[in-house]
Amino acid sequence: MIGRLNHIAIAVPDLEAATKTYASTLGAKVNPPQDEPDHGVTVVFVELPNTKVELLYPLGENSPIAGFLEKNPAGGIHHICYEVDDIIEARDKLKAEGARVLGNGEPKIGAHGNPVLFLHPKDFNGALVELEQA
Amino acid sequence: MIGRLNHIAIAVPDLEAATKTYASTLGAKVNPPQDEPDHGVTVVFVELPNTKVELLYPLGENSPIAGFLEKNPAGGIHHICYEVDDIIEARDKLKAEGARVLGNGEPKIGAHGNPVLFLHPKDFNGALVELEQA
């Protein structure tokens, strides 16, 4: 069912410093920051030849990553995103197998303009998993 | 400098259950478990079209992931691995920029038979980063 790894997301406490680490220290191609008010984050996309790293920084109040950064002040790997062909079909299969879908279970439009869903980390080895229809 | 994302590693408390989650629930291609006594882990490779997920389970005493699983009993994303062309050149550049290389600073032979190094999470937004010459 799952296809490509779409991205890995890393929550960072200092977006400018993190951008510099990836652009200069690690020498990767880094894009300008992009505000995603619907998701409560500012995102910097790091382009690797086969996938992306997303550096996430809180935007506005009630950012979904604020709590994560409180618990992990230095930052940390926040989630991994796998692509699926049909997000509704994927969701229904996962629910039938007992996996928990976060939120109200309806896909939202993600940072790339595609429908996304998040799955409960407890059902996936402690890793927060995002599914993106792509 | 960094190239492809070689893999994401997820430490898991129950390798059989985690394998089933990836093979059956997520429908990915999963390989048989592989003991890596030099690294203190048993690894299951999950093949995605563009990269790999490695499920890590402790092997023997003093496994480097035992402490992680104590702190994260449900498991969790343990590290990310980026490919580099020349690991010694990469190491020297990173050290010159102030990044800390773990262990004695000399590459070890990793699970894929290539030289690898680990970088200090504090210097990379809380994410443990492995570099693999590939």
UniProtKB/TrEMBL annotation, chains A, B:
Domain VOC: 4-134
Gene Ontology biological process: L-methylmalonyl-CoA metabolic process
Keywords: Cobalt, Isomerase, Metal-binding
EC number: 5.1.99.1
A Pfam match: Glyoxalase_4
GO molecular function terms noted in the UniProt entry: metal ion binding; methylmalonyl-CoA epimerase activity
InterPro entries according to UniProt: Glyas_Bleomycin-R_OHBP_Dase, MeMalonyl-CoA_epimerase, MMCE/EMCE_epimerase, VOC_core
Record's catalysed reaction(s): (R)-methylmalonyl-CoA = (S)-methylmalonyl-CoA
Family annotation (SUPFAM superfamilies): Glyoxalase/Bleomycin resistance protein/Dihydroxybiphenyl dioxygenase (SSF54593)
PANTHER family in UniProt: METHYLMALONYL-COA EPIMERASE (PTHR43048), METHYLMALONYL-COA EPIMERASE, MITOCHONDRIAL (PTHR43048:SF3)
Recorded family membership: Belongs to the methylmalonyl-CoA epimerase family.
Protein name in the entry: methylmalonyl-CoA epimerase
Source lineage: Bacteria, Pseudomonadati, Pseudomonadota, Alphaproteobacteria, Rhodospirillales
